[in-house]
Amino acid sequence: MNPQKVKNRYDAVIVGAGAAGLSTALGLYRALEDTESKSSLTPRVLVVSKLQPLRSHTGSAEGGIAASLGNQEKDDWHWHYYDTIKGSDWLADQDAVRILAEQAPGIVIELEHDGVAFSRTEDGHIAQRKFGGHTADYGGHPVRRAAYAADRIGHQILHALWQQCLRQGVEFAEEWYVTDLVVDPPADDESGGHARGLIVLDTHAGKLQTIQADNIVLCTGGAGRLFHTTSNSWDLTGDGMALALQAGLQLEDVEFIQFHPTGLGHTGILLSEASRAEGGVLRNSQGRAFMQNYAPGHGDLAARDVVSRSIMAEIDAGHGVADPSDPDGPHDCVWLDMTGIDGQRMTALLPQVTETIHRYAHLDPTVDMVPVKPTAHYTMGGIPITDRGRVYRWRDGRRRIVDGLYAAGECSCVSVHGANRLGGNSLLDACLFGTRTGQTIAAVMANSDKPNDMADASSLTQVLQRRQAFLDELLAGTKNAEPSEPALADNQGEEPDTGDEASLNNPYALMGRLGRLMEEAVAVRCDQDSIEKGLRGLDQLDDDARQLRAHSGTAVFNQEVTAIMEVDNLLTLARAVLNASLRRQESRGALYRSDYPQRDDEHYLVHTMIDAKEDVSWQPVHIVDMPPKGRNY
């Protein structure tokens, strides 16, 4: 679209154009088509994306989308419900998980109707494969529940949803960057506040503008760039979660960061769980398949947090291997052995995995074992929402709805993943709760007698002025910058990003330093000392971030400007992650604290609610019919 067509006022603005954002837009338009609206006017809806939509990270999802279709063996949504709660280590809200599991088959069938080219069984049904943690009969044998399209399911879903949005006439603002979310504070004890609008940077023109909206939806994805080794694309910098914190809102359960067990060597590039579902086996330096020692019965298809910790335990025991591309380097990987998979089957069902190994490891998985190590993959926590996508504040033991503000997808937390997400549930979460959020907004629009004119734009104007002053200072150059010592100069085995001013005035170098700091602090395992060391390092990085300046005097297509803002978002979010991790003195799901190695339901069967001031409160988990018990695989 022509960026000059972006107006200052919309009925709804959706930030992010991955599966969650596109599903929200489609859910909204389709619900309005099915509703006798009191207004004959076409709603003004805009999707803002810092990328062209088909570059959204949804496109990289490989393995499958979970749904109890039962196409290849008996399945039941109640089993999916149980597996998701167990996988979450009993931290998921069970009323929300019920919606996820019960409505999953309908969402998959709807995606098929929208054009997703699922792989097929011989009789023409949607094909399904096994995925870690998904079982029959409440924890029995692994079951085929993940509907797949070879190993390119995310690509299929993203393209199908985007094409359907174009068919509906959805309006896009591509390569526009949201810098600020403006939320008026609560007017009284019953209110959670009111979302007024957004400040956005048009990178085509290099200009800031305000956008007022009755309804704002944050669908900005995760925050894998918090870590040096990540499967996430370069753009997943936690923008939506940071916008919420900076607007005075809370985040829920952000200490739970999932590490996918099979990142390729030292690249972090994901090798799908499908590689193990089709017969791949993890082996240590002695060639032993070790997962049966840690998860008898489920082995390589145990939940991801279990497999990641098992890999790290083998490495810690001296049974790791070096990446063949760096044979003299650290022995911090294990082998993924896919040689037992038939070559033709591998080509047909794992083409992307095979291509990735060929291209980036220069190995042939039909004859070579492949080095893998855990890679930062998914943020289970995020912006707290109801099962209808409404953002809320947790205050005085109650949820206070923030009027006009919604979220969906990985940046949000409806609490269906709890402390650990099962494979296949992320695409399902994004599509299902994105659709429900769009339907909720459509109902609000249909029941509104007249649009809100939102005449009071004073708060937006004030934020715009502050952001413009910040932008002007960035573009003024480096003459006032005062570099400080790098935060990680004392790291052993690291080449320090030292010294010279050019290195320090570099947002990408600062992101790299943050990634290494976070890996040392909380990757896969942590303790009080590592977390506190990380917080001290963040203080130094904050100082350096304040000195960042652009090297060009124009904001037009200036990626350095947006990178500096992304650094600010990552630092804001990193502090919340570390403080939430410090406050939760137990091990649960993806958070393993070696100083508190046991789960503590007596004190921590609660959600962590943290704000930018580092204030933490606790929200009880919704237990319906699955009381907590031991979690073994």
UniProtKB/TrEMBL annotation:
Q: Where is the Fumarate reductase/succinate dehydrogenase flavoprotein-like C-terminal domain?
A: 513-633
The top EC class, named as a word, is oxidoreductase
Q: Which cofactor does it need?
A: FAD
* Compartments (UniProt record): Membrane
Q: Where is the active site?
A: R304 (proton acceptor)
Q: What is its main location?
A: membrane
What are the start and end residues of every segment in region (Disordered)?
Answer: 480-505
Pfam families assigned to the protein according to its UniProt record, in alphabetical order: FAD_binding_2 (PF00890), Succ_DH_flav_C (PF02910)
EC number in record: 1.3.5.1
Q: Which PROSITE patterns match?
A: FRD_SDH_FAD_BINDING
Provide the GO MF annotations for this entry: electron transfer activity; flavin adenine dinucleotide binding; steroid dehydrogenase activity, acting on the CH-CH group of donors; succinate dehydrogenase (quinone) activity
Has the keyword Membrane been applied to this entry? yes
The protein's name:
succinate dehydrogenase
Gene Ontology terms, cellular component aspect? plasma membrane
| Annotated FAD-dependent oxidoreductase 2 FAD-binding domain residues | 11-427
Annotated family: Belongs to the FAD-dependent oxidoreductase 2 family. FRD/SDH subfamily.
**Any idea which UniProt keywords this protein has?**
Electron transport, FAD, Flavoprotein, Membrane, Oxidoreductase, Transmembrane, Transmembrane helix, Transport
Keyword Protein biosynthesis part of the UniProt annotation? no
